[in-house]
Structure formats: C-alpha cells, structure tokens
Design a protein that fits this description.
The complex is a heterodimer of chains A (491) and B (159). Chain A is mainly beta and 491 residues long. Chain A has helices spanning 26-33, 117-125, 270-273, 330-338, and strands at 52-56, 58-62, 70-77, 81-82, 85-86, 95-103, 106-113, 155-159, 162-166, 173-175, 182-185, 202-203, 209-215, 218-224, 230-237, 248-249, 253-258, 261-263, 274-276, 282-288, 291-300, 304-308, 312-313, 319-326, 351-357, 364-371, 373-376, 387-394, 401-408, 413-418, 423-425, 429-432, 442-450, 455-462, 472-475, 486-490. Chain A has a single domain, classed as 7 Propeller (Methylamine Dehydrogenase, Chain H), CATH 2.130.10.10. In chain A, strands 2, 31, 32, 33, 34 and 35 form a six-stranded antiparallel sheet that branches. In chain A, a hairpin with a 5-residue loop joins β23 (312-313) and β24 (319-326). The model of chain A is unreliable at 1-23 and 33-39 (pLDDT under 50). In chain B, strands 2, 3, 5, 6 and 7 form a five-stranded antiparallel sheet that branches. Chain B has a single domain (2-29, 40-158), classed as Immunoglobulins (Immunoglobulin-like), CATH 2.60.40. Chain B has 159 residues and is α+β, with helices and mostly antiparallel strands. Chain B contains three helices and eight strands. Classes of the chains: A mainly beta (491), B alpha+beta (159). Chain A binds chain B through residues 131, 133, 137, 139-146, 149, 169-170, 190-196, 214-216, 218, 220, 235, 241, 263, 265-270, 273, and chain B through 1-8, 11, 108, 114, 116-118, 120-122, 124-125, 132-135.
Chain lengths: 491, 159
C-alpha cells in the first residue's frame, strides 16, 4: 500500500533545526563531533535538557475523530548524560512525563521531568552519580534507600484525580495532571515507605489495582483502591529470585512469570547481579487472590519476557494469556547499553506467544510469527481480550520498531500499519469511542519519532482499521526521546 | 535494585544495633571511665534538619573503629528533641582521639530505627562528616573525625 510516510527526499543536516530542544552539552557535542550524526535514530536516545512548555502541534494530515478528547500521558527516560558522567543504560534516564492533549480537533504537547532526589543529586554533581538499573553509582552518591536513586521513568497511571509516575524498585511519584508538577513520593503506609512498586499494575473492573514490589526472593503484593488508598500489602516469598517487570492475573488468580534471569552476586546494580540461567526453565507462580498463601507452580520452556496481557481463566481453571517472548534477555543486556553510546546491536526479536496453564497437565507456550512488544488491550473487559495492540516491524539497522499491529486471537491474524524506516514507533494505547461497548470500537493513539524530520509525531488510528494508517497526525517542533509506557485520560 | 535494598538494609542494621545499645545506656550521656590523662575535649554538634521538625535525634558516638563498625558499645548516646530546623549540643569531657557518629531521626517516637519489610530504613539516618551511604554504610575512614584536646565541631545534615 502506498504510505504517506515514504521517506522524504530532503536530507536533514545533523545538528540543524531538527535538533532544536535537544541541547547537547558542550562536552558531549565535542565527543560526538567525530561520530556520524547521520544515524538519525540516535535522537531517540538523546537528552532533553529542559522541560517542554505546552505548545500546539501542527496537524499534518487527516482530521481528529468526533468524540476523541483527552490526554495521552507517557513516561520514559529523557536525560542520560551530564558533563562529568552519564547513564550507561537506556533504563536509567531521568523520567520525563509527556502530555499530548487532544481536543476540538487539535493537539498540544507538554513535557516535564519528574523532580526526583536522583535528578537533584545528579544535577548538583554535574554527573549521573545515582546508580540505576544498569549504571553504577558515582562518587558522592548518597543512597539511604532505593528512592534516592528512583528515576520514576517507566510508566504512568491514574489514581483518583492524580497521576502516579512509576519506576519499579521504589515508590510511585505523584504528578499533577494539569501542570505535570511533581507533588512528591507516594507512601502507601509509613512502615512500607521506600518499598518497591512495579511499573505494570493490573487493573480490576472497579479500578482497584494489584502490584508487586520485589527485592530478590521476597515480594510484597499490593492492592490499591481507585482513589489511591492502600487496601492490602501482603508479604510473599518467591521460589526464584527472578527479575520481575510485569505480571498478570485472572478473576481468581495472580500469575507471576518467573524467568531464569535471577539475582545473584554482590552488585547493587541489577544488570550486573542478574544472571541468565536458561537451565532453570521459566516457572510460573499462580496465587489465589483470596488467599495468597495458596499457590501452585508450573514449568514452561525457557524464555524471557518483559510484557504480557491480562489473563483469562476458564470455569475449569485453565489460564491463558499473551506474552511477548524472546529466547534470552539480549536486548536489555546488550542493546540497551549500546544505544547509549550510539551503537546499534541487533537482538532477538520478541514474538507474541500464547501461554496456556491448564489446571491439570503440562503448561505450554505457543509462539506466533508476529514480532511484538508493548502489548496493550481494550481493557474494559478483564481477561485475554480478542485483540492485542502492539508495536511491530522491528527496524533494520537500528533499534526498536516501525509498525503498529493489532493481533486477533480468534483468527490468528495481525493487522499491521508499517510507518517505514524513518519512524520509530512507540507504545500505542487504545481508547474506546464514547458510548460504545463493542470490543475494540475506538481509537489507537500514540507517538512516533520521525527520525528524518527529527520531530515527535502523534497519530490516531481507527482501532478496527489500523492497516489503513492514521486518520489524523500531528507534528511537534521537537523530537522527544523515546518513551516507554502511558495511558489515555479521557476528558 | 535487589542488592541496593540489601545494602541499605545492612546500614539500617548497623544503626539499629547501635541504637539498641543506646537504649539500654544512660541517655543523658554515660561517661567512659576516665583515663589516666586529664586532657578533656568538648565536641560541639550541630544538626541541620531538612524536613521533619519533630521527633528526636538518636545519636551514638563511638571512640573506636571496632565499636563503630560492629555496633559495639558507644562512648556516648544522646537523644535530642527536634523542634526547629537546627539542633545543637555540646558533648563535654571527651578523651582526645578519633571518633565516629551515627544517628537516626526517630519520627514515630519508638526509639528504634524504623525499617520497611525489606529492611530499608524508613526514618532518616546520618553519619559524621556527612559521610555518604554509597554501596555500603560509611566506614571508619569516611565517618571518623579527630577530637583534639582543643575540641572539635561537627555539623551534620539529616532528613
């Protein structure tokens, strides 16, 4: 199909207007001078040196659909390098909250860094001294708790009338939805201050969330009400000290995938203390939501995954969910380090797979041919929804993705829109058409970084016709470094 | 962040151990048996409270590396009520030598360093020389300071 996103013939000179908003420090500019800035993809992993005041986005094509109004909030690291020291892993940038506001056919963009102790300490030191997921702490760091190095950079959710910026090894940060100002650390109970809270809580239909907080083989199971009040915090022990980024649940059970990337050794930097032990297989811990001490374990063949969908459980107790599975964690171990120095290291591509955990009999994982990451669903109904929205089409010669896919679990077909190599596609989310109740009747919304034009763009698709391409697109005057996860807050 | 949590938990244990000993000592400042020398020095302490102007600072002063590093017997223990952003006290009559100080801000009034279920301190902690916790609690070389016969002063930030 012809794509309106064919690469432009205009070659953008590096360092020119397209990099407005990405102020390279003098030291970094000097270091980069010899390196080829023609590798446009590096702008997705560059530094934003200041907040972005709200600015109108320019409509490129199409028309905003009637009834679409609200704000797409997103999170992701956007400051990695300082004159005297830098983060060495993509997961260790300062969290930047992005707000794409859509209304009256128009869109605007604002972005504001989360005001964390980490950011303050790094700024004062003029170096990234706060150790992180893959970055060693620098001299002068003062780390009395994980919240001293909390980058608040992975996702953002709504609780009550406020937002929580989530990391995974420390507390949420409360964020003002209108101004994006940081309101402070969220302490759910005084004796649980500084406890970890995953970036991927799971939602119940009444707005309650479950989350986990993990330290090695110990975890806390959180339940938080829609208004942010703590409902329960239950300690559990994990049978394997796996790296946990996401988990899933059914109406009856919590389902925790324990992959054989396990904490060992003495380093405080997870990337260094995590060891890949494929011989252990991937285990799944299933907990009874009514009584978390009631549990069972199933074994799966070895795989690694960051993200999964919510899970369905039949009356007979068989559990099914989708997962984006890779043979090993090579992206996070190698590629996510190399992108920080502008090098592309190909890694195994995550594939959408179906995990089936029968109540009796062997568990299995069935992998599709579909490259998939950042899976999202309609979300209004629990369980494994018919459609899974995901990033797809791994780009050649540079990291991450260039396409949006919608996988239909009933037909096993993937509807795809491929933006082409000039666009780095970020996570897209679904929002329902107001008043609709049919599954996946609504819109897909999310940004791309137009690497050739060096700007962030916002796109809206008809969710049921994603392969037709966006029905409206807007462009910002700046390229915001690639983010991770977000949500759409309907007006 | 597994092992970061284990490090900060170890820090908490170090302070909690000292605090436990402090609880059982005379909190007005039990003096060590006087040594043969008659030289005595005053240690002037100023604490800058950055956030919580309430509760009390629970302070343990050690006169040896062994006591400091292994939660041994402090030579002085102090409990200072916090009602403003600065708390000062003079510890008199110290034998000149090298000392190290550990403290926590007891916000909930239970006299113990509060920790979460992962062993991470949930009350503020601080050390002499404003020594930093980075991978591990500050050691004797980092937190140690001299108290000569003419006296010494320490200003420590907490919260």
């Amino acid at each position: 199909m012809t794509s309106p996103f064919q690469p432009s013939r205009r070659r953008l000179m590096a360092g020119a207007a397209g990099l407005a908003g990405l102020a390279l420090t003098p030291e970094l500019a000097a270091a980069e001078a010899g390196m080829a800035m023609a590798a446009d993809w590096k702008i997705a992993f560059a530094d934003l040196d200041a907040d972005l005041a709200p600015r109108a986005m320019q409509r490129l094509r199409g028309k905003a659909p009637e009834g679409l109004a609200g704000t797409l909030y997103r999170n992701g690291g956007a400051k990695f390098r300082r004159p005297k020291g830098r983060a060495t892993h993509w997961f260790d940038g300062d969290g930047l909250i992005r707000a794409f506001r859509i209304g009256d056919g128009q869109a605007s963009l604002a972005a504001r860094f989360v005001d964390t102790p980490k950011r303050r300490a790094d700024r004062a030191a003029d170096a990234v001294i706060s150790g992180g997921f893959g970055t060693e702490a620098g001299p002068g760091a003062h780390i009395a708790s994980p919240d001293d190095v909390n980058a608040a950079n992975i996702s953002i959710i709504r609780r009550g009338d406020t937002l929580w910026a989530l990391w995974e090894a420390g507390s949420p940060f409360a964020i003002d939805p209108a101004t994006l100002e940081t309101k402070g650390l969220v302490t759910l109970r005084d004796d649980l201050a500084h406890a970890p809270f995953l970036a991927h809580p799971r939602f119940e239909p009444d707005g309650r969330i479950w989350s986990l907080g993990q330290v090695g083989d110990k975890a806390v199971v959180w339940q938080v009400a829609a208004d942010g009040a703590l409902l329960a915090a239950t300690p559990i022990t994990l049978p394997m000290a796996s790296y946990i980024h996401d988990f899933t649940l059914t109406d009856r059970h919590l389902v925790i995938v324990l992959q054989p990337w396990v904490y060992e050794g003495r380093s405080v930097v997870p990337l260094t203390s995590l060891k890949w032990r494929p011989e252990l297989g991937t285990q799944v811990l299933i907990l009874d939501k009514q009584d978390l001490s009631v549990r069972r374990m199933v074994e799966l063949p070895t795989f690694f995954a960051f993200h999964m969908t919510s899970a369905s459980e039949s009356a007979a107790g068989d559990i099914r969910f989708g997962i984006c599975a890779s043979p090993e964690p090579d992206f996070v171990i190698r590629s996510a380090v190399d992108v920080m120095s502008g090098t592309y290291t190909p890694a195994s591509q995550p594939k959408l797979a179906l995990v089936t955990l029968p109540l009796r009999g062997p568990a299995r994982i069935e992998t599709t041919h579909v490259t998939a990451e950042f899976p999202r669903t309609d979300g209004r109904n629990p369980g494994l929804n018919r459609f899974t929205l995901h990033a797809t089409a791994q780009a050649r010669a540079r990291p991450l993705f260039q396409g949006v896919g919608v996988y239909d679990w009933t037909t096993n077909k993937d509807a795809v829109f491929d933006f082409g190599p000039d666009h780095l596609v970020e996570e897209m989310v679904f929002t329902p058409r107001p008043g609709s109740s049919e599954a996946f009747d609504g819109w897909i919304i999310g940004p791309t970084i137009n690497l050739r034009a060096a700007r962030t763009e916002l796109h809206v698709f008809d969710a049921r016709h994603v392969s037709d391409g966006p029905i409206v697109s807007w462009a910002a005057d700046v390229a915001v470094p690639a983010g991770l996860h977000g949500m759409f807050w309907r007006a | 962040m597994t092992h970061l949590a284990l490090v900060t938990a170890a820090v908490a244990a170090l302070i909690a151990g000292s605090a436990a000993r402090a609880q059982s000592a005379d909190v007005t400042g039990a003096a060590a048996a006087p040594a043969a020398s008659s030289a005595r020095a005053d240690l002037s302490l100023t604490f800058k409270i950055r956030q919580f102007q309430r509760g009390a600072l629970m302070i343990a002063l050690f006169d040896s590396e062994a006591a400091y590093m292994n939660a041994g017997q402090p030579v002085r223990v102090l409990k200072l009520d916090v009602t403003s952003d600065t708390v000062s006290v003079v510890v008199p009559g110290l034998v000149p030598g090298r000392y190290g100080l550990k403290l926590f801000h007891d916000l909930n009034g239970d006299g113990k360093l509060a920790m979460n279920m992962f062993g991470i301190p949930t009350e503020p902690v601080a050390f002499s020389n404003n020594a930093k916790i980075n991978m591990r609690a500050p050691n004797w070389a980092e937190a140690g300071f001299d108290v000569p016969a003419s006296g010494a002063a320490q200003t420590i930030d907490i919260d």
